[in-house]
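Form 12-C: Joint structure prediction
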Amino acid sequence: MSTEHENAIQTEGDLLRDALARSKRKRVRRILRTMHPAKIASLLETLTPLQRVAVWQQIDEPHEAKVLAHLSPTMRDELRREGDQDGLDDQDDQGQTSSTKTLADAAGESKPAVQTQLRLVLEALEAGKLKRIARLFRKLHPARIAGLLESLPAAQRVVAWDMVDHERAGKVLRHLHEEVRRRLAAEMDLDDLVESARGLEPDDLVDLIQDLPAKLGREILLALNRRERERVESMLSYDEESAGGLMNLDQIAVRAEISVGTLLRYLRVLDVLPPNTDKFFIVDRKGRYQGILRADRVLTARPETSIADLMETDFEPVSVDQPGEDLARRFEDQDLISVPVIDAGGHLLGRITIDDIVDLIREQGERSMLGLAGLDEETDMFAPVLSSSRRRAVWLGINLLTAFLAAGVIGLFEGTLEQVVALAVLMPIVASMGGIAGSQTLTLVIRGLATGQLVAGNARILMLKEVGIGVLNGLLWAVVVAALSILWFGQWAIGAVIGVAILLNLLCAALAGVVIPLVMRRLGIDPALAGSVVLTTVTDVVGFFAFLGLATLVLL
Amino acid sequence: MSTEHENAIQTEGDLLRDALARSKRKRVRRILRTMHPAKIASLLETLTPLQRVAVWQQIDEPHEAKVLAHLSPTMRDELRREGDQDGLDDQDDQGQTSSTKTLADAAGESKPAVQTQLRLVLEALEAGKLKRIARLFRKLHPARIAGLLESLPAAQRVVAWDMVDHERAGKVLRHLHEEVRRRLAAEMDLDDLVESARGLEPDDLVDLIQDLPAKLGREILLALNRRERERVESMLSYDEESAGGLMNLDQIAVRAEISVGTLLRYLRVLDVLPPNTDKFFIVDRKGRYQGILRADRVLTARPETSIADLMETDFEPVSVDQPGEDLARRFEDQDLISVPVIDAGGHLLGRITIDDIVDLIREQGERSMLGLAGLDEETDMFAPVLSSSRRRAVWLGINLLTAFLAAGVIGLFEGTLEQVVALAVLMPIVASMGGIAGSQTLTLVIRGLATGQLVAGNARILMLKEVGIGVLNGLLWAVVVAALSILWFGQWAIGAVIGVAILLNLLCAALAGVVIPLVMRRLGIDPALAGSVVLTTVTDVVGFFAFLGLATLVLL
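Section 2 - Result
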């Protein structure tokens, strides 16, 4: 061996040891790919057994044999055993089916399979069999990989993330929730990240850049060619959840004058059409939107027909600043696959496709559920304890204020409580019944507002209906609670007081459940986020005040 | 006039008066359509002014002039004024734009427009200008009409429903939520309902029949021809939310041996393809699924190419009994438009398209939000007071049991409360902080279970993380609440007791938030429905017990 060669080994070896020490597995794999099998083999001989196994897990399977050929016989056997175990492990395990079958199941898409995949990944991580993860990932759709990564605790997630081939990393990033996406992108070497980002569609790229720290985003932009960069930069200016932010630039736009035959020749040149191409867009000489041509019309028309005869001019385009929520409703109502997006001057800018709308609808559903618990920013189940604690503390703090308010009301009646301690025992019942009834009304009204089905003209009727329900349920539960309280404490007066308090609180809960979200909406506050706190405050305060106030009047 | 003629007038007049008296406006319209303008005119002369206006609102606009021509001059002027007012009303109204503009806006799809439409309908109902509603409805997509109908209070909804042309009534029914759909279908005359149902796709027809009383469903089935009936009956046997229940039968299936040219000739015969046809399905001689051919491959291929060369055989079909939830995830992950559905023998049965999946995702989102408030069956904002009250009473009753349990715990410490009444004042704070913290954890776990991201392998780590958050937030708020309580009551011991109780309750809330939904899932109970009640019970009981128990030990 020449000195130069030795130096080269040394340098690559150092890089590799450094990457190993810092657990940068993607980098280890990248370095290994540039190395000759013989070099890898001699490097392996110099490593500690632990390091050796770690490096071995990063060697691509097709290259294993070549590297083995260059190893000393003992080491070859050692590593070959390491490799074989991969396949054998599961068979050794009594309770499990053979690994081939499990993997075949795992590649399917039903839910048990999803959970089987997750279990496989968790086991492989436990056993340090990273190759097994890489093998599974290669069989799965990027969205599924994203789902698996999100299911992993933070430390293990980084390890598994390193086993995603960087050609697919961009697509996986696209499918991750914002918080996880930001963290995993930050884990990557900059050039890997840039490389992965390159494979993305412009709209996904825009999403990714918006979620990354500004510096990383700039690096990605710089790596694009001028035309791509200009496109992405123009899209970055739109709000993430407006038509502009959801829009893609892969539309096929043609002029009305051409014939179906000409269009078909053009499509044949393209060979593969962009996904979700259910219609083509017709533009005039200046790029202004004129109408649509459904793809199936092209299939069924004769080649000599002019597109002008087949196009539909009454298909309404979407304005670039239209909010995503309205778009989702239109897609849903009209069963659309794609719609054209135009600017204020009527020029065709791009199109929005159903896949992005489906993601939007799912996210909205999730957000409204998480929002009710004050968790709207907590999209990562395994976010670090400290940042989760901080975010949740805000919600607990707000709640504490309202709890102290309720306590303050109780405090007004200390004298009464001292004399009739039974009141302290029954007190939470009044508040809790009001809270439950109120949140039922609140949920219905929030939904009505979100769907646009509630306006000034029908809100009064809804309120009447809710008050009606409040009266009926108020009477019913007033009687039940009064009877139980009398049985418990043997005092008619206590029963009467709690019954009236419950009726009052349920009526008040119905009113508050309708009024609070309507007022919040008018003030520009999202009732889905803050409504329930305000409502509980009202039902607590009214409940305690009515119950203890009445008791003071009647019992003392 | 012959006697016979007079009799006929009389009979139709009777029918009409009867329909009017019973507010069956759809029937009135149907009768009017069969009558000669002269007959209608002479009938109008015999009616009371109120009846006359009501009938006039049901005469189709194109026929107005013909009927007017047969009327006496005074009545003609009277009714013409009635008609003219329709157009003038809005202009007379100072605060409003001209009706043409409002209607044009209303036909758009942005949210302000949705609310404008609703306002228009409510105003028209108020003024009895039913024709205006019919005119608006004719411009709108059935889904939008359904949305408007759902926004109307029950009585007004029936009136507006009668203004939906019965040719479109089926499509509108398809877009209504189950509860509303059932009510409005019951409002229709049977033959109208059968007629409307006929225009539906088999899968929508199946949905409709499943929601109707068995008797009505049978009538609809009987009105179909044998082939249709057999199809629908076979689909009725599948679970509504399984692949079979979501499946449609409009797929285009071809054999692999034919050429693209042959396929194109076949498609030209069809002329219009079923919506969402992004792929064709390849079957063998026995109808067994072989693979897919993407529609854009047909567009870009040369006519002589064989389909066997273009088809993809690795596209995984869906089994007819696969649950809808998994399907939704697959559509979402893989950005699909349609998938083939096969039976256990591999035969192609039908296909599932994205529009039904979008509806499913939206419904799931809604249900999980409504379910948290025990409202999962309350899809009609304007359901009758009595049935709403009954449904909600169940939830209130369950909650009452848990409230009495909490009260029972407080009752154990009556002696303590008698001596230190400050405890009664602070008590709700401990319970409420625990409830909020617990519901945050619970929400996260329920979401993890729903997405399949939570399994035995990572549940322990999630629990550790949640307990960690519980410790941090517990310490923080223990200190804050203790400090505030000492300031309020001037007793160090009370501060210490409430601080420790809050820490304990937040820890317990974290554990319960993870464990309760996992146990429920294993027992086959939906944690999204019942989880929060059980959780609040735990945090109330633990909170009260810890606080009052510690106080008894420390303060007495």
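Section 3 - Comments
Chain B has a mean pLDDT of 86. Strands of chain B lie at 253-255, 279-283, 289-294, 318-319, 338-342, 348-353.
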